[in-house]
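hiii so um. not sure if this is the right channel but i have a protein structure encoded as tokens and i wanna go backwards to a sequence. like what aa goes where. can anyone help
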């Protein structure tokens, strides 16, 4: 589960990054400040996806927190601007947070089993 979250996060990071770039450039060219700002927040969401992917395997609980923050920001920015795709990526981030949580539980369970075998 943790490896899947890492791979999905890195792949989606690229897609969100390209869309954020397009939204920022389009918003600046069209003098639409809310869309340009939402695009900039999209870049921040991309950064949070990167951090979440980095911690998904070894510290999945950090990944959960990063995805929750990214999801909240993305949904708020996406629903308040013309960059509505960002809201969709926010819901995807919340789904990845759930997957990371299950990865955290899986890691704890494996550690408990390993501890049990040692005794």
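sure thing!! here u go:
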């Amino acid at each position: 589960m943790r490896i899947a979250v890492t791979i999905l996060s890195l792949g989606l990071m690229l897609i969100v990054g390209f869309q954020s770039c397009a939204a920022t450039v389009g918003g600046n060219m069209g003098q639409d400040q809310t869309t340009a700002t939402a695009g900039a927040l999209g870049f921040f969401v991309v950064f949070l996806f990167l951090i979440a992917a980095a911690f998904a395997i070894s510290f999945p609980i950090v990944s959960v927190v990063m995805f929750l923050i990214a999801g909240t920001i993305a949904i708020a920015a996406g629903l308040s601007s013309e960059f509505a795709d960002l809201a969709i990526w926010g819901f995807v981030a919340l789904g990845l947070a759930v997957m990371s949580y299950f990865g955290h539980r899986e890691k704890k369970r494996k550690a408990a089993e390993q501890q049990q075998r040692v005794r």
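oh and Helices lie at 2-29, 33-55, 60-79, 85-118.
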